[in-house]
Amino acid sequence: MGRAFEYRKASKMARWDKMAKTFSKIGKDIALAVKAGGPDPESNPALRRCIQNAKGANMPKDNVERAIKKASGA
Description:
With 74 residues, the chain is mainly alpha-helical. It has helices spanning 3-37, 45-56, 61-72.
């Protein structure tokens, strides 16, 4: 397809790889926070901090909610 396509593909893949690693780490942090203090961010400061980190990393809200739901067992 050409050199330009390969260059764009490589840069996109590198960016997506970095995003996947970041989102996985934040998801694990959310799971630990939920298991330690419950699924309510109002009463769980560790979870609230994890959610702020997720927002800072542009993690989709759906991913955050899914991680909370999975960790709480609901």
